[in-house]
Amino acid sequence: MAAVPRDAGSGPAAGARFFCTAGRGLEPFVMREVRARLAATQVEYISGKVFFTTCPDLNRLKKLKSAERLFLLIKKQFPFDVSSVSKGRMCNEMQRLISDDPESWLNAISIWKNLLELDAKKEKLSQRDANPLKRNMGENDIIIAKKSKTEIQENRECQLEKQMEEEILEQGNVITEREEVQEEESEKDVAKAVVAHNQGDLTFRVSCRCSGAVAKTFTAQEIGRVIGIALMKQFGWKADLRNPNLEIFIHLNDVYSVVGIPVFRVPLASRAYIRTAGLRSTIAWAMASLAEIKFVLRGPGVNVPTSREVA
């Protein structure tokens, strides 16, 4: 396979540059799906990965069924030549992934922050729309309390009934307060991730995969350490291996060098509605797509779309 040319992390004004990982042989399914579902452009693939440009919309990106994981692309370039250079020089070449073009990193971080902000706003609006009664309870607390006191004074025989109503209202208020606290905590987490870069307090970790000649010279831990030090020097970020705000993914082999940011913590191939593990979800989707299955599998409280419906 020919070497992969350098590719910018962000696409034109019409969209951003992403890439998906896919099982061997499933790349054509991913290419067809991103074109049909995301109206993607500049679609190309190399073994195990599909690159494309599309509008950064999390709701649409989450619907991909044939891909394993989704990443926001920062860099794609030729592989490192480790045969004719020393190990020290190779470390310098790896650090140049950051120092040569810091603008592509900043653009990718900006897109990543916008995705988080938009997703947080949509989740907040959907939660409010789903619970209109609970949302309005807090506004009517004072009026209801006054009415209940007046009714108790006028008719003592209804005292027990009114007490029960008050208890129900209090329970509803407790639930509302808990939901508000959870929403505030979620907003704080997103805000922390969004604002962290501007404050220089962004925490990160590097996940590295290497194979071929690179793997014979460096371990994944050594490459992660080199890239991590370069990021700290260039942007002032802080390393956090356990609970970082940001994860940097790097894949180095004899064909290409790719750097990206995982869009979701959970892989796309993880289906929330599948309770019992069986055939790999991406393979099952590809088989259903080839078979052009039209029926829908329904379970208790679960609707599983077929490949035809998904497409």
Automatic annotation (TrEMBL):
PROSITE patterns: THUMP. It comes from the Eukaryota. InterPro entries: THUMP_dom. This is THUMP domain containing 2. PANTHER family: THUMP DOMAIN-CONTAINING, THUMP DOMAIN-CONTAINING PROTEIN 2. Residues 161-263 form the THUMP domain. Pfam families: THUMP. GO terms for molecular function: RNA binding. Keywords: RNA-binding.
